[in-house]
Amino acid sequence: MADFIEGKRPVIEALRTGVPIKSILMADNVQRDGLIEDILRKAKRVGATVEMVPRKVLDSKSDRGSHQGVMAKAAPFPYVGIGDVIDAAGTSAAEHDGRALVVILDHITDAGNLGAVSRSAEAVGACGIVIPNKRSAHVEASTYKSSAGAISHVPVAQVSNLVQAMGRLKDEGFWIAGATEHASDLIWNANLKGKIALVMGNEQEGISRLVMEHCDFLVKLPIEGEVASLNVAQASTACMYEWLRQNQ
């Protein structure tokens, strides 16, 4: 997540959607309008400290020069390890007749898409999300917004190697399903019962060749219209709910 969120409305939105705010820097000459009063109320409610500083301090920290006299410092997102996701899956399987879902995102680049995927993952009871730690979207303020706060309730593991993470999941009894428009089988004809790791690809490129080669099987959603594919967040939601349907 970016260290600072700039501007009155972005700071209000961050406080409203549950972004973990450590502190708020406010220019000592800022005009106390309705937005500033709202920030002060929300900051007090969540226990975030407000520090009055010279405007030049904000200028020195601003990336875009659009702070409007207010910047919020966000706490780093608490990523977990792949082992934590596996442990959560074990608990889920024990409590839900052996079913567990892990979502693997193969270098998606939009932080809002990450949030939208996590919202659906939380809704269907997924055990966690796995993302690469490089060349991939990470959790930032827009992720909290698009997830409606759900990102705080889904373990997110950052890993250095997706193929190795997939191998660990296979060792724990997971079947790896890759969602791609190049698959020959529709997802509702595939067996998604039990422990499934669902791989979703990059917004433009889809699943990479190496990751696809390590999937156990490939599935696709039916497309009846003229558009070739769905947005990754929409496709993820449809696939996750098919997993849930088969396991209920």
UniProtKB/TrEMBL annotation:
RNA 2-O ribose methyltransferase substrate binding domain segment(s): 4-80
GO biological process: methylation; RNA processing
Keywords on record: Methyltransferase, Transferase
Superkingdom of origin: Bacteria
Gene3D superfamilies per the UniProt record, alphabetical: 3.30.1330.30, 3.40.1280.10
GO CC term (a single one): cytosol
Claim: Methyltransferase is one of the keywords in the record: yes
A GO MF label: RNA binding
Coiled coil, from the record: none
PANTHER family membership: 23S RRNA (GUANOSINE-2'-O-)-METHYLTRANSFERASE RLMB
Similarity comment: Belongs to the class IV-like SAM-binding methyltransferase superfamily. RNA methyltransferase TrmH family.
Protein name: 23S rRNA (Guanosine(2251)-2'-O)-methyltransferase RlmB
Organism: Eggerthella guodeyinii
